[in-house]
# Entry
Amino acid sequence: MLVVVGDSHTVALHDGLSSLDHETVERLNGLFGSVKAQVVMAGYSAFQPFFFRNAEGISFIEPIGSRLAELLEDDGVIAPNDQRVFGFCLGFHIFGKHESLFGSAWKWRNHSVVSRRDRSFVSKAVTEKLILQQGRYILEFAEALNEMGVRAFFIGPPAVRRQHVELNHPMLTVDEMLSLQESFWSVMGAALGRVGVPYILAPSEATHAGMLLPEFELDRSWDTFHANAAFGEVVWRHIADRAACGEL
# Structure
């Protein structure tokens, strides 16, 4: 069984699974036996300790644990050498909420990751440290999965949307946001690679010039952040292709 869980970006995968073409569904079932996808946590939950490990395996804080248990119809524990495959949709956010180091645009009022006369420059080395600091619990989680012999991979969110930058982060230019996105994806990807856990980023066919293509945007007036079921379908095809090649 393949179990894909995570933050709110998992909705696109959940909805995409429901509308996915028959051929890809059959491929996934052939590779994994069956597939489930469900949101179990908020994105910012991963910026704080969200799991704990003991002899029985990995358990999760509430309400993550209860939601996972309901989905799996068991105790919600990931056991050592678990026979299921897990995909986790989290770990590549540029911006989050609450505990996120990158959570508020005002924090960049006087600083920038690109050269600007009116702001102090934040180097790639400093940016990398900030990213790894924010993602430390996710990386600890990935390391625990690998040490326990659990077959798992991580899935990145859709690329940023221009209106998200303009409406939610007015202190940033699009170039700054794209630079942060590239840094965040490359730093977290490299860190997961060092741990030995594979990952999938936003597929190239769903992006242009670093941004999510309009046809993959979730059509919801107040939402400038999430992707739609069509995006989820594209990701599922990539999962099937990567798994068929033995990369997941």
Summary: The mean pLDDT is 90. The two ends are 13 Å apart (CA to CA). The domain at 2-244 is CATH 3.40.50.1110 (Rossmann fold). DSSP finds eight helices and eleven strands in the chain.
